[in-house]
Amino acid sequence: MANKSRPKKVRAPYRSYKAKKEEKLVASVGIETQENTHIIHDHLKNNEFKLGVQQRPFHNSTKSEIVVDESINNAEALALAPTLAQNQAQDQDQNQAYLPLPIELFAYILEIVNANGDLDPSLMRVCKDFYKIVRPMIYRHPRLKATSFANFVETLSSNKSLGDYIHSLDLSFVQSSKNAFVARLLKQTRKNLEDFVAPQTSFGLGPLIAVKNCLNLKTLDLRLVSETLNLTELFHSMSNLNQLTHLSFPRSSVDIDNYNNIKWPPKLTFLRLSGGINDEFLSHSNLPELITSLEFAHCPLITDIGIRQVLCKMGQKLRNFKVQYPMPSLKGNSLDDVFVLCPKLRVLEVCVDYLSSTFFDEHNLRHVNYERPLRTLYINSSGLLGTLNRLGPADLAMALEDGRLPYVKNIQCTAKLSWDPKSDAVISIADELDERGGGLYIGY
User: Quick one: pLDDT band at residue 131, thresholds 50, 70, 90?
Assistant: First the structure.
């Protein structure tokens, strides 16, 4: 039974509004329609025009469109037809005169901008062509940090095609990660990856196996890896890397037992040795003949005997040679005969902990029939007791004046050598290098 005390619903009166048949808009036919197209007449009122009024088209040259005008008859419209054809022909000639630039030119310009480091990712919003050009440039050399590493891995996982754009991968700023993430990155970027810098942590057996599939890899830098790596596994991973030219050993590597399994990349030109390798490794492993740059760092088991064995084998071919602190098994004069064993050096980096005070004397740096090509010299020091006054500037100034180092332009040394910048020897070195277009740099 209905509740009669309940108030009835009240509905608002509804009335439908319909436009009259006589209301019409001006017809407009355009070659290119735009949002700001000019309309001659907005609305036609009901009582001003009748339905039987004749219409004529005329050409609007500024907008390249045909607008309907209802003020003249068909005969006048036929008279304007030649003018319309002429205007259309003129517009076509103008369009042909302003041809668009080829997309290859835009790509070349953006490559220059990218090389200077000024490429803005917002250029991808310009058009589809810019998006296709800029996207590979952005992902070619990604700049990763600890805060952006997780998002980068997630992005590559959601869009696997982006991994083909990556040519270099620098994970030196990534301090905390997982082995699975690094291995996944190497798998997704293996097609075109050329340069890889391993992180300090999270580089174990999984990423080491993934490196094996990066067939186009040219640079493998493991110097920051703090985890212990087996050299047997490392050489097994490098067995297919025939394009590798730069290799840096991890500083916590374990020595290898079977030297017959060592297979060096055939195109290797740069080698940085560190970790648990010893003199036996240097004597039994046949280093590639193409090596021109050799570095030693953090090698506690290598003695001066191993250094001399290597330099006697390949010292004639070396162009760059560096020995960095610490090398605790080296003596105080282990590197005195570097100029004799390596006569073609262009860059030399030594530490005074392994040099004697006669390093620049005529006995070690003797006069030769050719001009030594050495250009850059780095002199470092640990700052320990007994190393402050071991190497003085007077012998170096004498070697520069005598012409025993005719091409040296830049010398960088540490302030731990206790060289007085106001002394006559230091001033003489600075003046001589300044005349050659270089300079003397003293820092920490």
Answer: very high
The span from the CA of 144 to the CA of 138, in Å, is 12
Please provide residue 413's backbone torsions phi and psi, each rounded to the nearest 5 degrees. -135, 160
Alpha-carbon distance values, 177 to 8, 151, 171, 184, 399 (Å): 70, 12, 10, 12, 51
Q: What are the residue ranges spanned by the domains of the chain?
A: 101-139
Give me the helices (H) in 324-443, please.
338-341, 393-402, 424-435
pLDDT in tens, 163-210: 999 999 999 988 777 899 999 999 999 999 999 999 998 898 899 999
Do the beta carbons of residue 26 and residue 68 sit within 8 Å?
A: yes
For residues 257 and 242, give the distance between their C-alpha atoms in angstroms, rounded to a whole number.
24
Question: In angstroms, rounded to a whole number, what is the distance separating the alpha carbons of residues 303 and 306?
Answer: 5
CA quadruple 244, 246, 249, 255: dihedral sign: positive
- The fraction of the chain above a pLDDT of 90, given in percent, is 57
Interatomic CA distance for residues 196 and 23, integer angstroms? 72
Half-sphere exposure of 256 (CA within 13 A, CB side): 18
* Cβ contact 153:185 at 8 Å: yes
- The Cα–Cα gap between 341 and 327 comes to 20
Cα torsion through 229, 231, 233, 237, rounded to 10 = 110
